[in-house]
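FAQ: What does the model actually see?

It sees only this:
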Amino acid sequence: MYSVKQVSALTGATEATLRVWERRYGVVEPARSAAGYRLYDDEQVAVLRAMVALVNNGVPASLAARTVRGTSVQGHSAIPLVPGATLDLVSAAAELDPERVHAVLNEAFAATSFDDVVDGWLPAELERLGEAWQSGRISVAQEHFASAAVARHLSAHFNDAQPQGGVAVLVGLPQGGRHELMLLAFAACLRRAGVNAIYLGADVPLDDWKTVASDVGARAAVLGVHLEEDVAAAQAVVDQLTALRPPVAVRVGGARRHRISGARLLDERVSQAAAAMARDLRAGAV
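And it is asked to produce this:
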């Protein structure tokens, strides 16, 4: 166990910064000595080192905190990748260089497990990409260029993973929904877990959900609900699918998932959410 002074020396963060990150972002929860002093273990030191690396590379502290929390799971390093010179999706987008963006994605997915990439590096880079577009550092065309490359990469992983049979699970966005990259990552995780995931993609009309569910005998469906304007359309899909006989169980993910009723909420980490759903399907709990 390490004192806050020792952790400061090991990570390069000041003691005050470590306390702020704990209080404001919940990055780690150190134990306390009998006298009430903070005590950190090796895993927490690794998480804090990752946090320092991200912040030093220009990632906002709030985003860095979400990233290291999302990838600090048993059996994995806190965060094996940081957005740096070679793994910078924003710079590759700005250059409109297909070889560069392809190299960034190849290096990221080769450096660690697929789960670690989609739980940590990828959402962090996509958020950076969105922030760069909103601030005017990259154009709409450049953002679309990078997003299309990510979609192609995730689609390849989805197609390479062969389901092990079983009932179908529909995965898609409600009518009008467009932000599909992390949902595609979730679908790939489901496939890699052996689930017969059918990816419908973005902007799926309401009536098509019912038709496809009936045609393939879907047992469950997963919706992404990212924006406030997606909520009403997503709720309509949930209401329609759960009213079928037999009903189709629905789970929802995304930033606005808490606004939906009648469906189970997915974990923020796509790999963990997919693994939990796969276990429930095998156990007949869906």
